[in-house]
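Handoff note, outgoing to incoming analyst
You'll be picking up this chain. Sequence as last confirmed:
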Amino acid sequence: MELTHSSVAVTRRQSVRPEKAGADREEHVGAGVMMEFAREQRVFSQGDPADTVLLIVEGRMRLSMGSSGGREAIVGTLGAGAFLGEEALAGRTVMLETATAMTDCRVLAFAKDEMIRLLRADGEVARRFSAHLLSRRMRLEADLADQLINRSELRLARRLCLLARESSQDETDQRVPAEVSQSLLADMVGTTRSRINMFLTRFKKQGFIEYDYDRGIRVDKSLRKMLKSS
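Most recent structure output, in case you need it:
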C-alpha cells in the first residue's frame, strides 16, 4: 500500500500518539501519514502488498475475505484505536483481508520499518499494539465459538450488542451505527437478509431494540441479559 496513493487525501504528518509530548519524547515517537477515506471507500484489498500498518483515528471499517470462487465473508469490524495491516510485521508479503470504510475515516499510516522502530523505541506504542493484538485474538476465538455453537438468532443478538458497545461511549444509549445495514448484518452473522429482518422485528416486539433510521438501532440492556441466560 503506497502512502501517497491517489485514492486518499494525505493531509499532514502526525505523531502516533495524540497526547502532548516533550521534545525528548518526540525524538523517538515517529510520524505517520494522515489519510482520509470516504464511506464505502476501499482502504486496501486482499492480496495488496503488506508494507503498511494503519491506526484508525476516527470512523469504523469492516474487514472481509474472499475466496477464489468469488464468495466474500465479513470477518470483523474495527473502530477508532484499532490497527490494520499488522500482518506486515509478521513477515507476510500480502494483505490477508480487504478493508473498507463503513463511515468517513481518518487513519495514520506507518511504513513497516517505521512501525517496527516505534515498537522497539516506545513502550506506550508497544503496549497499545499488544493490547490490540490480544483483543483481536480473543474476539476471533469468541466469534468462532459463536459461529459453531449458537443458532443464527443468538449470533445476531451478540453481534448487535458488540457493535453497539464498540460504537457508543454512553452506556445508557448504546446504538448500532445507522450505516450497518441488514445485508451487512446478514454477512456478519452468516444467514440471509430475510432472516435478519425477521429476527430484528422479533427483537423490536420483545423490547430488546428500538429503531431510529437516522441514529441507528438502540440496543436495550435486556438483550444482553437474554444472551447471558441463553
